[in-house]
Amino acid sequence: MSDINIKITDREGVTHDIVAPTDMSMNLMEIIRSYELAEEGTIGVCGGMAMCASCQVYVINDPGLVEMGAEEDAMLAEAFHVESNSRLGCQLHMVPEMEGLEVEIAPYP
């Protein structure tokens, strides 16, 4: 079992130190949901298909995330509250290289 330590700031401004597994094929949106860091029904509305941007986060510390894919880029082009450091949590799969990741959950439209 391989866990990483990440920090997630919720929509209320509270920062949470999270231990996330890298051996369960989870993405950041699923981690946020499992720790109940966003109100039910306001994150992962599309089920992680990169079709709604409800799981948008702002990357504060990037330890080396994978590049953004075309679907994620297209969805962010249509989303609200997008910043230069925006990513979709559903597209960020938990891997050991993400140790030290820090994100802030974007406002819900």
TrEMBL record:
InterPro entries with a match to the protein in the record: 2Fe-2S_ferredoxin-like_sf, Adrenodoxin-like, Beta-grasp_dom_sf
Superkingdom to which the source organism belongs: Bacteria
Example GO molecular function: metal ion binding
Keywords: 2Fe-2S, Iron, Iron-sulfur, Metal-binding
One GO BP: P450-containing electron transport chain
Coiled coil segments of this chain: none
Hydrolase recorded as keyword: no
Keyword Iron-sulfur: yes
PANTHER family hit by this protein: FERREDOXIN/ADRENODOXIN, TRANSFER PROTEIN, PUTATIVE-RELATED
UniProt protein name: Ferredoxin
The species this protein was found in: Chryseobacterium taiwanense
